[in-house]
């Protein structure tokens, strides 16, 4: 929440209580809450109208298709690659990391 911790929030509330007064503080808090909820509702409407999430998904699919030739993600593409081994190299076929193979030789 904007990097405001509990001590800072308490200080803000105490200052607001002193400046605004105990009688008007609940009214102002209620108006502020209504304003924030209306703003959130309006932003949700704009987001829905612009279809931002759908656009991001489509852009990601397009990027992956251009970079990797399909809709799969880089992690999926890496998991499908097959490690090439030289003839007679059993350790590469066993799937051991290159550092382990070099250490064993």
Describe, in plain words, how this protein is organized in 3D:
With 105 residues, this protein is mainly alpha-helical. It has helices at residues 6-20, 25-50, 52-68, 74-80, 90-93, 98-104. The longest helix has 26 residues, at 25-50. The chain starts with 5 loop residues before the first helix and ends with a helix.
Structural class of the secondary elements? mainly alpha
Task: Figure out the total of helices.
Answer: 6
Major sheet, described briefly? Answer: none
Mean pLDDT: 75
Please compute the radius of gyration using only Cα atoms: 29 Å
Shape: elongated
Number of strands: 0
Helix content: over 70%
Low-confidence segments, given as residue ranges, are: none
SSE order, one letter for each helix or strand? HHHHHH
End-to-end CA span: 56 Å
Taken as a percent bin, the fraction of beta residues is under 5%
Produce the secondary structure layout:
Layout: H1 6-20, H2 25-50, H3 52-68, H4 74-80, H5 90-93, H6 98-104
């Amino acid at each position: 929440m904007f990097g405001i911790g509990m001590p800072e929030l308490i200080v803000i509330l105490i200052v607001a209580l002193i400046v605004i007064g105990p009688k008007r503080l609940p009214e102002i808090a209620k108006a502020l809450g209504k304003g924030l909820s209306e703003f959130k509702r309006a932003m949700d409407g704009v987001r829905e109208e612009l279809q931002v999430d759908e656009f991001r998904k489509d852009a990601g699919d397009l990027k992956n298709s251009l970079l990797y030739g399909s809709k799969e993600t880089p992690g999926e593409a890496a998991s499908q690659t097959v490690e090439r081994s030289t003839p007679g190299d059993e350790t590469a076929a066993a799937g051991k990391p290159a550092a382990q193979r070099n250490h064993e030789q």
